[in-house]
Automatic annotation (TrEMBL):
SMART domains: S_TKc. InterPro entries: CDK, Kinase-like_dom_sf, Prot_kinase_dom, Protein_kinase_ATP_BS, Ser/Thr_kinase_AS. GO terms for cellular component: nucleus. It catalyses: [DNA-directed RNA polymerase] + ATP = phospho-[DNA-directed RNA polymerase] + ADP + H(+); L-seryl-[protein] + ATP = O-phospho-L-seryl-[protein] + ADP + H(+); L-threonyl-[protein] + ATP = O-phospho-L-threonyl-[protein] + ADP + H(+). It is found in: Nucleus. This is Cyclin-dependent kinase 8. It comes from Hypsibius exemplaris. Residues 380-401, 451-460 have a biased composition (Polar residues). Residues 365-460 are annotated as: Disordered. One of its GO terms (molecular function) is ATP binding.
């Protein structure tokens, strides 16, 4: 008995000596670019100079690793696609029981890109966003989601903050879908997803079937979220912006968010969505909403208001992604074959093709700084002109939603606040969203609108 313990001890000592230590390989001190309840994220480079690439090192908060993080790591190690973030290595530090994750480093994300253009337009500064950039962004997002769906993976938390874009380098302008903290395999679930995760997807991007308490849902929820992102790229504001806080509770029904959807799309017609009567929260919806209050509203009227041509290919694709009935919603395969992508300008592998990247690089943060420091956001320059590759007005992009928060602990955590480079959370379905308001003027003429205050740190 004693000899076996000795052998086990010797094995532990040997493996500890052979185990690669992250601090021996990478230089990252003073290069923190993100933090929150999930942990800390650092911009890192190899000490030996064997390559000049930049990496993202994520130190998971607390000691050990949660089951949720284990699921996400296992999933990321299996996924390999140009438009899905790449988990390169996991480092385990036995001395302090810390877990480090090594990722590709992305200098930009859609949240910052859209915010840049919104701020510039708000200040009436000249910024031109080519149609090719919006089209290329959408094409790459759909390509990445098609790969996930073909491999039976639902992302379940798509939003601009989770869409990274590579900066200058070998993969310049390439989209990387990140934050797989909510991702789940859906080929053979042992239980209903509604039992495992009562609430998924940040609520501005949450499909109506989720809001109505669907017990079973499909990859159509990801398509709805992408449709919301597409609309945001085209109109410079979130299409279903709701001012109320997103408090993740066990009940998925969200009256205010449904009201926002109905005010854009109109009241759901039972002839168009036959299964709506089967939704668990259908009776609650009929009690709180009256069809006649929304009879003059439609996506077409919304698009006309925001100067999206109703007879254009962009609106045609958008309308097929934002269909109330999930069974009629476009799939990623069908979306990629849409005529919108056949028209000029053609989508490119570099979304910044043809112009210098005008967006500021991520800034380092210190422990003395506030977690939410508005000054960390780079302001738009007075004049930035990005050459358009197509005739007609350009599309300004902006983003005003607060990313959902992932909390990393060994025990089930409470909703927290903070960005995540690759947002792990202790228990799926306990992602919180704060909505402390700041007044941000609308891009359009008229009164200003209040949007939730934003965090500036990267979300992977």
């Amino acid at each position: 008995m004693h000899s076996s313990i000795g052998l086990d001890g010797d094995f532990k000592v040997k493996t500890a000596l052979e185990r690669t230590k992250v601090e021996d390989i990478f230089s990252y001190e003073g290069c923190k670019v993100g933090r929150g309840t999930y942990g800390h994220v650092y911009k890192a480079k190899r000490k030996d100079g064997s390559d000049t690439r930049e990496y993202a090192l994520k130190l998971i908060e607390g000691t050990g690793i949660s089951m949720s993080a284990c699921r996400e790591i296992a999933l990321l190690r299996e996924l390999r696609h140009p438009n899905v973030i790449n988990l390169q290595k996991v480092f385990l530090s036995m001395s302090d029981r810390k877990v480090w994750l090594l990722f590709d480093y992305a200098e930009h994300d859609l949240w910052h890109i859209i915010k840049f253009h919104r701020a510039a337009k708000q200040s009436k500064k000249l910024v031109s966003t080519p149609t090719s950039m919006v089209k290329s962004l959408l094409h790459q997002i759909l390509d990445g989601i098609r790969y996930l769906h073909h491999n039976w993976v639902l992302h379940r938390d798509l939003k601009p903050a989770n869409i990274l874009v590579m900066g200058d380098g070998a993969e310049r302008g390439r989209v990387k879908i990140a934050d797989m903290g909510f991702a789940r395999l859906f080929n053979c679930p042992l239980k209903s997803f509604a039992d495992l995760d009562p609430v998924v997807v940040t609520f501005w991007y949450r499909a109506p079937e989720l809001l109505l308490g669907a017990r079973h849902y499909t990859k159509a929820i990801d398509i709805w979220a992408i449709g919301c992102i597409f609309a945001e790229l085209l109109t410079s504001e979130p299409i279903f912006h709701c001012r109320q806080e997103d408090i993740k509770v066990s009940n998925p029904y969200h009256r205010e968010q449904l009201d926002k959807i109905f005010n854009v799309m109109g009241y759901p017609n039972e002839r168009d969505w036959e299964d709506i009567k089967c939704m668990p929260e259908y009776s609650q919806m009929t009690k709180e909403f009256k069809k006649q209050n929304f009879h003059n509203l439609s996506l077409t009227k919304y698009s006309e208001k925001h100067k999206i041509k109703a007879d254009g290919a962009a609106f045609a694709l958008l309308s097929k992604m934002l269909i109330m009935d999930p069974t009629k919603r476009l799939t990623s395969d069908e979306a990629l074959k849409d005529p919108y992508f056949s028209e000029d300008p053609q989508p490119t592998s570099d979304v910044f093709h043809g112009f210098a990247i005008p967006y500021a690089k991520r800034e380092f943060i210190t422990d003395d700084e506030e977690k939410e420091d508005p000054s960390k956001t780079a302001a738009a320059p007075s004049t930035v002109t990005i050459p358009s590759t197509a005739a007609g007005p350009s599309n300004d992009v902006s983003h005003n939603q607060r990313p959902a928060v992932k909390k990393i602990k060994l025990e089930p955590g409470q909703p927290g606040h903070g960005h995540d480079y690759h947002g792990h959370q202790a228990m799926h379905g306990h992602s919180g969203q704060s909505a402390s308001s700041s007044s941000i003027a609308s891009n359009n003429a008229g009164p200003s609108r209040n949007y939730p205050a934003q965090q500036q740190q990267p979300r992977y």
